[in-house]
Amino acid sequence: MEQLRIRWFQWAAPQSFYPIAGRLWPLFAALAAVLALVGLYLGFFVAPTDFQQGEGYRIIFVHVPASWMSMIIYLAMAFWAFLGFTFNTRLSGMMTQALAPTGAMFTFLSLWTGALWGKPMWGTWWVWDARLTSELILFFLYMGYIALTSAIDDPRRADRAGGLLALVGAVNVPIIYFSVKWWNTLHQGASVSVTKGSSMAQTMLWAMLLMALAFWAYSIAMALYRVRGIILQRERHARWVQEVVA
Amino acid sequence: MMWVSWDAFWAMGGYGLYVWGSYAVVLVCIVVEIVLARAGQRASVQTARELWEQETAHDATP
User: Fold this and answer.
1) How confident is the model at residue B62, as a pLDDT?
2) Which of B19, B34, B49 sits opposite A245 (nearest CB)?
3) For all residues of chain B together, what is the average pLDDT?
4) Is residue A11 a part of any domain in this protein?
5) Residue A53 domain-assigned (yes or no)
6) What is the pLDDT of residue A198?
7) Which residue of A has its CA nearest to B22?
8) Contact A62 B26 (CB under 8 A)
9) Do the Cβ atoms of B51 and A230 come within 8 Å?
10) Residue A128 has pLDDT above 90, yes or no
11) Which residues in chain A (147-186) have CB-CB distances under 8 A to chain B?
């Protein structure tokens, strides 16, 4: 137990995490590509036409996974921020920072694909209902995090300020998730629920889950790739970095 | 094959603009993110390398 604990802290040292991340990111990137290909094939060539929405529903295969990732990545940032405050490890702040751009991208994609789905089905690109508004707030939280951390020169202070924003902002995530239950929204309820199971056809569900896994693998690959650059930049004065780049 | 023709596939039952408008932007975002991340990684390596060269040059001067 004690040994395992020490191991974890060793891996969390930027110097040992740099090569680990370098070996792992290509695996996750390849996994993401394979999952996306299978998911798109199922989604476009196997899943049947929806009896209500025709072919328009096929936006779901990117909309729902992007929305899930927008929330999951923010929670992951809050998790790393929490570790940073508790154990004061250097890697935590770097991981929080490495995740933010991918999270912001998925939040934007969730809003964009949602607008393109809303227009033909609801007759409007946008409504100020609880689900859409709280997702927009999530986008501003990501932007706020990126702006805040890049405005502070000292990386440790930037980590602490950004970490606080990541932790406090995490309150918004359950609000987004449960907004369709708590308020009367135009947005439909959850397509997949832990308690009730799924309300979709099997192949539609599989295509969506595969795409969600693909986005998940993509996010891990991007975070691992980006954290290597952050490690190099922050540790550039260290001997080991100079051996790596020489 | 569930589509009668490729035209039918691209038309998406009249929802083509919305469906392909979604997927195109997803693709563009992913490509842009990868390009930016690669540029960032290269810049980090470059700064570290320049710093290393400066220091070794400094050490070499008597």
Assistant:
1) 54
2) B49
3) 89
4) no
5) no
6) 67
7) A113
8) yes
9) no
10) yes
11) none
Residue A119, in any domain of the structure:
yes
pLDDT of residue B59: 66
| Residue A90 sits at the chain B interface (C-beta within 8 Å) | no
pLDDT for residue A69 is more than 60: yes
> Residue A240: how many CB atoms within 10 A of its CB?
12
* Interval A176-185 mean pLDDT: 86
CA–CA dist A90, A10 (Å, integer): 12
Of residues A9 and A166, the one with the higher pLDDT is: A166
A101 has a chain B CB within 8 A of its CB: yes
In this complex, do A232 and B40 lie within 8 Å of one another by their Cβ atoms?
no
User: B31: distance to nearest CA of chain A, Å?
Assistant: 11
- Average pLDDT (A129-151) is 96
What is the number of domains present in chain A? 1
DSSP state of B4: S
Average pLDDT estimate for B22-45? 96
Give the range of the structural domain holding residue A140, as residue numbers without chain letter: 39-44+58-188+196-234
Name which of A55, A105, A117 is nearest B12 (Cβ-Cβ): A55
> Domain for residue A113, yes or no?
yes
Residues of B in contact with A228 (CB under 8 A): 41, 44
Q: What is the C-alpha to C-alpha distance for residues A37 and A190, in angstroms, rounded to an integer?
A: 25
Does residue A52 register a pLDDT over 90? Answer: no
